[in-house]
Amino acid sequence: MEMLWLDCHHSELTTQQLYTLLALRNHVFIVEQNCPYQDIDGQDLAAENRHILGFLDGKLLAYARVLTPALDSAPVMIGRVIVSEEARGLKLGYRLMEKALESCEKYWSQRAIYLSAQAHLEGFYGRLGFEPVTEVYMEDEIPHIGMQKA
């Protein structure tokens, strides 16, 4: 399976790519997880934020967003990590996170990397070098845990 991976600054996204990634996020985070929340949060087109997209045969199967550190001392943040329903079980989550981590290294090499993980994925992110830095907390009625990679 030959995936096409893109690491795009928001200004490089086509209208179709932006629509497709927002549709995937809406389907997974709002519809599938039955969690009404404000996904379009003003960060998609801000600062130097990056979008990691994984396509197979023109279909978006994996996506993550990388947020520019807010302060000089702040970590880079990875979020909105998604593998589409039909692609789960293909190990795309690891490949997606490898691409997101490569982007962090390329654009913010001296920064720690933070993510707010759904608590049941702590082991997955742990295998990628992330360690818990918070207790489990509720975010949009879903247990999460803050994790960081130095």
Write up this protein.
Strands 1, 2, 3, 4, 5, 6, 7 and 8 form an 8-stranded mixed beta sheet that branches. The chain has a single domain, classed as Gcn5-related N-acetyltransferase (GNAT) (Aminopeptidase). The chain is globular and about 40 Å long. It is built from 3 helices and 8 strands, in the order βαβββαβαβββ. The protein is α+β, with helices and mostly antiparallel strands and 150 residues long.
Kindly summarize this structure in a few lines.
With about 150 residues, the chain is α+β, with helices and mostly antiparallel strands. The protein has one domain: Aminopeptidase (3-Layer(aba) Sandwich).
Rg (CA only):
15 Å
Unreliable stretches: none
Oligomer: single chain
> How do the helices and strands follow one another from N- to C-terminus?
EHEEEHEHEEE
pLDDT average, as an integer?
94
Biggest sheet features: 8 strands, mixed
Total number of distinct structural domains: 1
Question: Which descriptors apply to this entry?
Answer:
single chain; 150 residues; 26% helix
